[in-house]
Amino acid sequence: MSRPRCERCTRAQEHCLCPLIPRLESRTRVLLLQHPSETAHALNTARLAALGLVNGELRVGEVFADLEQWLATPGYRPVLLFPGDEAQALTAYGETDARPLLLVVPDGTWRKARKLLYLNPLLAALPRVTLGQVTASRYRLRKAPEPGALSTIEAVVQSLNALEAPVCFDALLRPFEALIEGQIKAMGRETFERNHGGH
């Protein structure tokens, strides 16, 4: 028999993360587009990010029929958080930025994220933004595919911290850190130290 799950955070009831998930207000609207293969991922950080942001939304799929409508959300300038030659580094909103950003964040492996762009030409056509200063990932259970690679929730937090400084969105990471600690505890500290060198 499967263990009862929390419907909100989808964790097993005894490991429910809801008490750790904040409800943070942001000027920026965050639209997370999750590849279906990510929904079963143990950490599913895009879901945690959407739950923690009042102005955040998670959509799951490969082809998004309503994308045009979402991108036309009144009062926001849509941009895609994805590296590229033309990508502009995110900087804090100035006095003149009347319209905040609708930050579209693809969630999946690099290959799956590129597939989302390929299958949704409107996404690929958006102006791209990227993080200027990347702080190291706290995701100690996985070797990053390249330096500066972050989990989705970390990328969202760092983007909002850059855009809305001095407001800080680090509280969004609390359930993520608890998840990682839980996984380390489950595998045993010694195994973790041996396999991950304590990084």
How would you portray this structure in words?
There is one protein chain. By secondary structure, the chain is an alpha/beta fold. Helix content is 31%, strand content 14%. It has one domain (23-192): Alpha/beta knot (3-Layer(aba) Sandwich). The chain has helices spanning 45-52, 67-71, 110-119, 121-124, 152-163, 174-187, 189-196; strands at 29-34, 56-60, 77-81, 88-89, 101-107, 128-130. Strands 2-1-5-3-6-4 form a 6-stranded parallel beta sheet. The model has no long low-confidence stretch (mean pLDDT 86).
How would you concisely characterize the structure shown here?
The protein is built from 7 helices and 6 strands; from the N terminus they run βαβαβββααβααα.
Keywords for this entry:
7 helices; six-stranded parallel sheet; Alpha/beta knot; alpha/beta; globular; single chain; 6 strands; DTW
The residue ranges in which pLDDT falls below 50 over 5 or more consecutive positions are: none
What fraction, in percent, of the residue positions are helical? 25-40%
Largest sheet: 6 strands, parallel
Distance between the termini: 36 Å
Q: What is the CATH topology assignment?
A: Alpha/beta knot
| Helix-strand topology string | EHEHEEEHHEHHH
Integer average pLDDT? 86
Organism: Pseudomonas reidholzensis
Domain DTW: 2-188
GO molecular function: tRNA-uridine aminocarboxypropyltransferase activity
EC number: 2.5.1.25
